[in-house]
Design goal:
single chain, 247 residues
């Protein structure tokens, strides 16, 4: 059985829905890596476009960014429940998500000079470090490890959902968004959980390739990795902004 991933887009049931064995070509790790690079390139293209619009002072850019975030969420739901749509929808998802990240990053950069470069470098460093740790088996995705990360991820998502709902009534969740030492500590924990999801994603993709999942699952695997990397980058931005705002 495919190991459970904390990433909600990469679940055991995904490969079951896709079929254990494709009639034609099957999923490979190399193919998933190639498609991951393609989706990342598209995301960066969307991000640079939004960044340029922000720098040009175009009115309403953040409104467009919110629209892109909503579109990305809808696309993510469709891809998650219908993996066969991944080859067509993942590139679109990467573009709209990139546009949102570009506008968000430009906004953070206007407040804290150099923060986006630091967040990007930290995200990539964590990705490479965990990939090395996974390949050398320093970290292994055991059953207990998977369950722990899954539970922590679900808890964080519920906390964010609660914070959003309470925000409509003018109520804020204590310490979640402030720059106190406890608030920074909470952000550190969230960054760690987001990073550990990468280990589960690597394991999920590796097992899918071993079991001969359909070829379109390469796009789905790339999608899952992108979701985790985007989350990790955003959490890096939040953590760094809290630290910088204390200066």
């Amino acid at each position: 059985m495919i190991g459970r991933s904390g990433n909600p887009t990469l679940k055991d049931s995904t490969f079951k829905r896709a079929g254990q064995q494709a009639l034609g070509d099957t999923m490979t790790i190399e193919g998933t890596v190639n498609k991951s690079f393609i989706t990342l390139a598209i995301l960066l293209g969307g991000a640079f476009a939004a960044w340029s619009m922000y720098e040009d002072g175009r009115a309403g850019i953040m409104g467009y960014a919110v629209g892109a975030a909503i579109a990305g969420f809808v696309l993510a739901l469709i891809i998650s429940f219908k993996s066969t749509t991944a080859p067509f929808l993942v590139p679109i998802y990467a573009a709209v998500e990139g546009f949102f990240l570009g506008a968000l990053s430009a906004n953070y950069e206007s407040l804290y000079d150099g923060i986006t470069l630091q967040a990007a470098l930290l995200t990539m460093s964590v990705f490479l470090a965990l990939l090395f740790a996974y390949k050398t088996r320093i970290i292994q995705a055991t059953k207990n490890f998977r369950m722990g990360v899954f539970a922590a991820t679900a808890g964080i998502m519920l906390m964010y959902l609660l914070s959003m709902v309470l925000g409509f009534f003018g109520i804020t969740v204590p310490y979640l968004h402030d720059n106190s030492l406890l608030g920074i500590g909470i952000s550190v924990v969230i960054v760690i959980v987001a990073a550990l999801n990468l280990v589960l994603d690597f394991d999920f993709i590796e097992r899918g390739a071993e079991q001969g999942a359909p070829k379109h699952m390469e796009w789905y695997g790339a999608f899952g990795l992108l979701v985790t990397l985007v989350w990790l980058y955003i959490e890096m931005l939040r953590l760094l902004s809290k630290i910088m705002s204390r200066d």
